[in-house]
């Protein structure tokens, strides 16, 4: 029974959602109990569709997308492929190769693209491999006992999560191997999701979204601070939740009454985008409700819009770029693209030229 409940809980938590209200005087962002259906459509100026070039020997599966200095880095972790594309979608070069050789990556658990360098973390194999965006091999080093990582000037930020007892959520591992706790773990015994999107960045700032968090944290210059506090009201996880002696019982109780926490966070010079989970499950029937929303902050205020499970766009935002929200979708996903978004594509015939055998497509929602 306990194993079944754990499985149900993990399945439910794989669904994501968020909603935000204007920042209050106490520096928090309140989350309303109910969000009416509201679309991002009135804020969208145009929709840009950029197919990633399909070459017979370079087909990709599920893609995570990262901004390169002159285009995109597309990562197919399952098939151990990392490709570099121009802004117009033209294939430029492969970035390294999967394999067991000294200049190859045996697996891809995390990727970080920064300052023209692609860092490939193979944490299950204890390796970090460095490449230039042009595919040139730059170096490699061994890593030990680390989970999700992010390279910073002082060393590596290591996110341990709740999988390891007695360790902090986030620590700084310096070049000499010494480790400093930055963010203490609020509880032991929580289920661990190990979301690969723990870290994001903007310039010198690295933003951290731990599992089960009620806040977004910022790292800079060796220190972590709370960057964005969220007040989820009756759905929030209070201190009593983290201090519970029986974490499984506390978790199941909260799932029945509803629970909310931050899922992902992005920020650039023009806007912020926050994604959270608001979830409620009937433990008798196994049926539940997940409300999908994003909070978008720009021009000094928050805007909230409803996300629907059947909409492939909103569930796959990759990052922010200037005035645009950037997504990466399969050609099959685009078949279900909302008709209102299709009308904002300057040349919608680009969709007709795609087939299900093509590589993924970069989609940009340019805001007014």
Structure description:
By secondary structure, the protein is mostly beta strands. The chain has a single domain (2-367), classed as Methylamine Dehydrogenase, Chain H (7 Propeller). It has six helices and 26 strands. A five-stranded mixed β-sheet has the order 1-18-17-16-15, with no helix packed on it. Strands 19, 20, 21, 22 and 23 form a five-stranded antiparallel β-sheet that branches. The longest helix has 12 residues, at 2-13.
Task: Explain briefly what this protein structure is.
With 368 residues, the chain is mainly β.
Instruction: Give the CATH class.
Output: Mainly Beta
CATH architecture, please? 7 Propeller
Please give the domain count: 1
Helix content estimate: 10-25%
- Beginning-to-end CA distance, first to last residue: 51 Å
Identify the overall geometry: globular
Please tell me how large the radius of gyration is: 21 Å
Q: What's the arrangement of strands in the largest beta sheet? A: 1-18-17-16-15
Q: In terms of structural class, how would the helical and strand content be classed?
A: mainly beta
Q: Estimate the mean pLDDT confidence.
A: 83
Approximate strand percentage: 35-45%
Number of strands: 26
Report the major sheet.
Answer: 5 strands, mixed
Helix tally equals 6
Fold-level CATH name: Methylamine Dehydrogenase, Chain H
Taking pLDDT < 50 over at least 5 consecutive residues as the criterion, the unreliable ranges are: 1-25
